[in-house]
Amino acid sequence: MCGIVGYVGERPCRDLLIAGLEKLEYRGYDSAGVSLLDGGRIESVRAVGNLANLRSAIEAAAGNGAVAVADATATIGLAHTRWATHGRVTEENAHPHGDCSDEVHIVLNGIVENHAELRRELQAEGHVFSSETDAEIVAHLIEKHYAGDLAAAVRGSFADLRGHYAFVAMHARHPQLLVGARQECPLIIGVGEGENFLASAIPAFLRETRRVMQVENGDIVVISPDGVEITDAAGTPLQRQVEEVTWDEDAAERGGFPTFMTKEIHEQPDAVAETIADRLSDDEHVNLEELEIPPERVAELRRVVIVACGTSYHAGLIGRYAIEHWARLPVEMDIASEFRYRDPVIGPDDLVIGITQSGETADTLAAMRLARDRGAHVIALTNVMGSQATRDADSVLFTRAGLEIGVAATKTFTSQVAAMYLLGLWLAQGRERLPRERIVELIAEMKALPHQIEATLANVEDQVRAVARSHYQGRFFLYLGRHIGLPVCLEGALKMKEISYIPSDAYAAGEMKHGPIALLDESTPVVCVATDSPILEKMLSNVAEVRARGADVIAIATDGNEAVRETADQTIFIPSTDWILQPMLAVLPLQLLAYDTARLLGLNVDQPRNLAKTVTVE
Ligand code: F6R
Hints:
The chain is α/β, with parallel strands linked by helices and 618 residues long. The longest helix is centred in the C-terminal third of the chain and has 36 residues, at 436-471. Strand 21, helix 17 (485-500) and strand 22 (504-508) form a beta-alpha-beta unit. It is 38% helix and 22% strand. An 8-stranded antiparallel beta sheet has the order 3-2-4-1-10-9-11-15. A 7-stranded antiparallel beta sheet has the order 5-6-7-8-12-13-14. Strands 17-16-18-19-20 form a 5-stranded parallel beta sheet, sandwiched between helices. Fructose -6-phosphate is lined by residues 309-312, 356-358, 361, 364, 408-409, 494, 498, 614-615. Residues 309-312, 356-358, 361, 364, 408-409, 494, 498, 614-615 line the site of fructose -6-phosphate.
């Protein structure tokens, strides 16, 4: 979730670019940089940490004779905030990146999946790299394809790249051109008078212009002070409308959404895509080299123990199905605040996974430390670079959801689930518990998830809002599921109570007859997760029992499952995928239901009462 700002025009742009980056800070970043082109040369300044560090680095560079930077006369430039994915958080890895001759500079968001292969090819052709990033490849590719026409060089490079990304390039010999390309990551043109912007989000230039043009997947965009040209990847000109943005600055920060929570719900396709991208890039293997766990250790493992709190715990519960079913390793799951106090039996044969989006939850950290003290190998699964969990673990697996501002976890949850699937497949691969064809099949299904998430959100939104309108004044919501549907229910009920304050409970549907069925009457909405699974039939019997008590059953079902439609009062369909992967889609209507209910009640969904985003006390 990095940030891009590019400017070309008549005004000196150094400070404009930094002001643009300030508006993208909310996305989270760990380093930043700016490149300015003046007098036929590009000068670049980069710094680890926040924008204050970048400003100090700019002052220092100016003192060292960096002319464009010091005089701030350049009228073309690129700037970037980086959230590290490939390569550590260092100045060398911060963007912009240059080619061998320092004539091409680029900034990139997203991930180049075939970076390793391209790097090898470029190195064999004599290109010398100065960073560990996938992004730098793009600068060298442009250098390779350049024959006097920057747009043509970008088109040539675009054809070589696989992945999901957006980038913007400039060339020392073209002092009035920026060229951008988009493949699945946002890129937007800000259209000004005698100047134009290219950025990853509108807030970056909203103070300067409200006229925008959307860049679509596969578009190559050329901006100059007095024009915008868009072509497809083959160079055929395309027409795009200029739209007027009416948001105020607050709304702009929320990407035009009314709340951060809904913005983050809609960022899930991206967050999941970034989390899985390069780790599944070769279509046949899961690559989690970053864990640095030797194959012998994987082969010798006897057990996996997962510790987490709240929503992260629910992600762990889903991961348990994946690890047990795919890797045939027993998995023990515990709430971190319980685990740490029960003198658990744990040792060197165990792999412990601590899931914590913030990386700072005190109970999870304590549970991880205890496991490490007893000799287990501990993996931190977290969204935050440099967080305490990354320092307390033997290995780290990052989700790449970007900063989550809404207190209720949404995009970090689905990213955690995606990461747990990666771990499950990786363990199965390392322990040779799944045939190669099955791994290939599952990788293909996982790669389809970002698109399916997007489609699900678009398809179910209206239907879920209608359900919320019918029940938002209710006294109680019950969620029922079995098997892999149960953790989805636990998460749905947590979201509902957390942001709407309506008492909500989630139960294993088979347990209803042992007591909770007494809760039901005609006023109770019962949300049943009845997606395809090995025990769907049993779930349907439970749904029928509930309906017989007069409760209003809202079922979440897999596309085409008429049996569920016939059993429930209302059915919300989600796309079909492997049953283990279904929670990723089934949770979406439940997030929306909690959200819509809370909004109808007029509540502040981004900051619910009594809750903080990070729980650092025990
Ligand atoms: C619920 C929620 C919390 C967190 C929990 C753990 O929406 O966000 O339940 O999941 O506090 O937080 P992390 O993952 O940061 O350890």
